[in-house]
């Protein structure tokens, strides 16, 4: 979740870029840098640490130039250092980057074999060298960038500056947000509206696959992941004073927050993983080898994240796990001991029942770790170890990006636990870390199913009841899907373990009840499909959520949503997205207040 700023201005832009980066410092603060064009030549200044160190460097070594790009970084590949700070450049191009290039190792090996020298550990530097290669081959910048984009696998936002091109900047996005700002004889590029607020209130938001070619006269946007044809993006007014909570070009905050998930999950993973080494970082203060038990507790959607984590911890770390809804934990009076770890999960870090559970665990001598989105919250402060989810502000009451970031954090923690306990070998760890690294791209691909899901929601908007079924880690996601539908559409919905269908819920099935079946093609697929056939035999309307292999074996359904194939470890995170989209569009068709559903609050601070 790094921050990007670009300016084609009429005066030296470095001071403006730094001011804009200050507004984006919440997105990353490991290092920062600026590159500008002066007399047609690229020059840059970079510094590790907080943004003030870059300011100090620019005071002693100022940059001229009326065109420039800047970046504030949250480290993914390579630690915080001047060499790894953005912009990365060659003699011909400078680039800033938000996201993860999954196939950078293959691309880097190819370039090294051609004699290219690398000066950083980052995935981003690969992009600069690939673009230079295209320019050296005689292509224009407008041709070179799309040619390189077609070779990149991952989710990203990019901004490019070129030697000798004082009136040109190119931006591109795939999975990570990027906005274009329109001035008077000036143009701007930024990660979001808050960065551009000091310069203009006229904003357009790029869509996935867009490539924006900017001059001071305006911008041409092309579909670089498709036909290459020019496309139109609406210019709208942005409220500068409320830029951080601007819905952008989305109708609701919930829609915006669903769309942000590839980016914020990538940001979260970059904090908890060493992507270059293929390792999970062990949080300081946690010795998993010395622990004999885990107790997980949370409320609402966070509780379902804990349920998924129980499956993970028991399988990949061989740790016994107790899990309770926080409002029940203390009153059940479970036996606890000082050799255990309590994991508390809360988006706000202020949830009253979860906080009370934390204090109860503390009184029983347990070590405390928390998974929270607000690092200054009470739960974070009272924990021995606070694990940030880095989802950014979540305005919609129904949790979306906070949930998937909780899962991403817990998944990283599970890998660290499994390795520390000797359950996972180095190859196992690298495999699971690799699956997580792919996740932002897979999430971006999954979000492309939205038109299909929107059409399906027309059917759901007419029903009174719905069932959601899943096995293994899909079972908690089934419960989460049902909760989302209840929360914002007010339709009665229940999530069940698929094997429990015949123990009661099947009595509800008829031609009026849609049944959502979550069934990735894994070792549980056949059993889940058998339960699905029990529904079909009773006239139920089946909505199957699976992958390409599962779709081939599915049989007849009302609708089959085909998600990208993914490692079983990450499917619960991926399959959460269509559940969110289905609830969202159903609620929109029903005309409910999506962002502020009746009777609900964002943070529950009373028992």
From TrEMBL:
Keyword rRNA processing: no
Keyword Transport annotated: no
UniProt region (Disordered), positions on chain: 65-88
Catalytic residues identified in the record: 2, 602
Primary site of residence: cytoplasm
Primary role: Catalyzes the first step in hexosamine metabolism, converting fructose-6P into glucosamine-6P using glutamine as a nitrogen source.
Assembly, per entry: Homodimer.
Protein name per its UniProtKB record: Glutamine--fructose-6-phosphate aminotransferase [isomerizing]
Gene: glmS
């Amino acid at each position: 979740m790094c921050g990007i700023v670009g300016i084609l201005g009429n005066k030296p832009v470095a001071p403006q870029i730094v001011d804009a980066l200050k507004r984006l410092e919440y997105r990353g603060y490991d290092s920062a840098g600026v590159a500008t064009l002066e007399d047609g030549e690229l020059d840059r200044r970079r510094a590790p640490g907080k943004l003030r160190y870059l300011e100090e460097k620019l005071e002693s070594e100022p940059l001229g130039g009326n065109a420039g790009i800047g970046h504030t970084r949250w480290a993914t590949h390579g630690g915080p250092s001047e060499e790894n700070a953005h912009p990365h450049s060659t003699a011909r191009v400078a680039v800033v980057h938000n996201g993860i290039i999954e196939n950078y190792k293959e691309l880097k090996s190819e370039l090294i074999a051609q004699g290219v020298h690398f000066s950083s550990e980052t995935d981003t530097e690969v992009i600069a060298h690939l673009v230079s290669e295209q320019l050296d081959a005689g292509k224009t910048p407008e041709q070179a960038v799309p040619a390189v984009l077609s070779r990149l696998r991952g989710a990203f936002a990019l901004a490019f500056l070129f030697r000798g091109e004082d009136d040109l900047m190119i931006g591109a996005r795939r999975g990570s947000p990027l906005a274009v700002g329109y001035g008077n004889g000036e143009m701007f590029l930024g990660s979001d509206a808050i960065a551009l607020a000091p310069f203009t209130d006229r904003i357009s938001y790029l869509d996935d696959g867009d490539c924006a070619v900017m001059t001071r006269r305006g911008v041409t946007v092309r579909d670089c992941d498709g036909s290459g044809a020019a496309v139109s993006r609406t210019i709208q007014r942005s409220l500068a004073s409320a830029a951080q909570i601007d819905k952008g070009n989305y109708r609701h905050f919930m829609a915006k927050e669903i769309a942000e998930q590839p980016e914020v999950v990538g940001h979260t993973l970059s904090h908890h993983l060493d992507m270059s080494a293929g390792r999970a970082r062990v949080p300081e203060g946690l010795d998993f080898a010395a622990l004999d038990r885990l107790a997980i507790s949370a409320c609402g959607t966070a509780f379902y994240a804990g349920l998924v984590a129980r499956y993970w911890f028991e399988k990949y770390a061989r740790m016994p796990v107790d899990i309770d809804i926080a409002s029940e934990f203390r009153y059940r009076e479970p036996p606890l001991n000082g050799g255990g770890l309590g994991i508390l999960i809360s988006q706000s870090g202020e949830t009253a029942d979860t906080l009370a559970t934390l204090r109860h665990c503390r009184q029983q001598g347990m070590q405390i770790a928390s998974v929270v989105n607000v690092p200054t919250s009470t739960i974070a402060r009272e924990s021995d170890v606070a694990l940030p989810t880095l989802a950014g502000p979540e305005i919609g009451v129904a949790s979306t990006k906070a949930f998937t970031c909780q899962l991403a954090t817990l998944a990283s923690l599970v890998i660290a636990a499994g390795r520390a306990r000797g359950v996972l070998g180095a190859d196992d760890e690298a495999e699971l870390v690799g699956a997580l690294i792919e996740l932002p791209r897979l999430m971006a691909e999954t979000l492309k199913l939205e038109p299909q899901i929107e059409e399906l929601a027309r059917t759901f908007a007419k029903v009174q009841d719905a069932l959601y079924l899943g096995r293994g880690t899909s079972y908690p996601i089934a419960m989460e899907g049902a909760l989302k539908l209840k929360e914002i559409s007010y339709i009665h919905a229940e999530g069940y373990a698929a094997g429990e269908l015949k123990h009661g819920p099947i009595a509800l099935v008829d031609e009026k009840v849609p049944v959502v079946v979550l069934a990735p093609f894994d070792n549980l697929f056949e059993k889940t499909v058998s339960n699905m056939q029990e529904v079909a035999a009773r006239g139920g309307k089946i909505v199957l959520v699976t992958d390409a292999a599962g779709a081939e074996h599915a049989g007849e359904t009302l609708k089959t949503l085909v998600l990208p194939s993914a490692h079983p470890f990450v499917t619960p995170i991926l399959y959460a997205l269509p559940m969110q989209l289905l609830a969202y569009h159903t609620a929109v068709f029903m005309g409910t207040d999506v962002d502020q559903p009746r009777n609900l609050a964002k943070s529950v601070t009373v028992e």
